[in-house]
Amino acid sequence: MRLPTAVLLSSLVAAALAPVLAQTAAPAEPRTMQARTMQDVLDASQPSDWRELDPARTLYMELDSGRVVIELAPQFAPAHVANITAMAREGYWDGLAIVRSQDNFVVQWGDPNADDAAKKKPLGSAKAKLPAEFERPAKGLAFHALPDRDGWAPQVGFVDGFPAARDEAANVAWMAHCYGAVGAGRNNDADSSTGAELYVVTGQSPRQLDRNITVVGRVVHGIERLSVVPRGTGPLGFYEQPEQRVAIRSVRLASQVPAAERTALQLLRTDTPTFDALVESRRNRRDDFYKRPAGHIDLCNVPLPTRTPPAAAK
């Protein structure tokens, strides 16, 4: 029996579409976005993505518990860094102490007798008076911006590895008070710091201090040696008894230390596509644990990886 033409055409069309319809009707296989983790990014990094510390602007703070490594930032605070390097060369902090540890805030060190003119330790060749260096001109800085908005500044990002902020309209830039930032303690007067009293942020980033205190650098290694010191029992976390203080064996420039005794350390550069990929891996985490990528990252939550140079690790 011959089928009517219309029926025959319908059958042919149905036969032709059957594979397509079958694929459409079949349950879709779950699709997982293959996003790189931070470790993936670091594993794929090249030697050019890493940088060495400059021994002339790196401090080694020696405690009984070990070494703390601080990178100084003369591009933001040249006068303070000059004072600090002079004091380090002359052993100013040797035998002094950590005098303050305030919970969720800062650890501070210096001369316990700084307020006693008759007992305080002389500054040596360092200057007794410095200008406040809360900010500097934004023009001329190689500023590597983050993609997300910030509640404290028009724009945030990194300059030579240091978390920073800027206001291009006002032509000003400044370092941010992220975890590990090292600042110069002062009194009420803006220009009352010399770099002799230093602190490091060991708590939630106190960004309200930005542009109110001179930031001179950041801890790049060994911050756990500072963050775990006992909390002070006095106001603002100051130690009330001398025996509570944590002794400082010495603070020296890395350039004063024989090369064989230096801490072998490389820092991930913050001005490369590799760093951008690392930031994105943290902005939108898609590993097995995270169910909802944030699509945002705060300046002070951006990891700043370090590593032992491959040659030194062998």
Estimated radius of gyration = 28 Å
Task: Tell me the structural class.
Answer: alpha+beta
Instruction: Provide the succession of SSEs.
Output: HHEEEHEEEEEEEEEHEEHEH
* N-to-C CA distance: 85 Å
Pick out the low-confidence regions: 1-33
Shape-level CATH architecture of the domain at 56-263? Beta Barrel
Specify the overall morphology: globular
Number of β-strand runs: 15
Which CATH class of the domain at 56-263 applies here?
Mainly Beta
The total of helices stands at 6
Q: Largest sheet, if any?
A: 8 strands, antiparallel, barrel
Could you give a short description of this structure?
The protein has 314 residues and is α+β, with helices and mostly antiparallel strands.
Provide structural commentary.
The protein is of the alpha+beta class and 314 residues long. It has a domain at 56-263: Cyclophilin (Beta Barrel), CATH 2.40.100. The chain is 18% helix and 23% strand. It contains 6 helices and 15 strands. It has helices spanning 5-25, 38-43, 78-89, 224-227, 273-283, 310-313, and strands spanning 50-52, 58-63, 66-72, 97-101, 106-110, 144-145, 155-159, 162-167, 172-175, 181-184, 198-201, 215-221, 246-253, 266-268, 306-307. Strands 2-3-12-10-11-5-4-13 form an 8-stranded antiparallel barrel. The protein has a 4-stranded antiparallel sheet with strand order 6-7-8-9, with no helix packed on it. Strands 1-14-15 form a 3-stranded antiparallel sheet, with no helix packed on it. A hairpin with a 2-residue loop joins strand 2 (58-63) and strand 3 (66-72). The protein starts with a helix and ends with a helix. Residues 1-33 have low confidence and may be disordered.
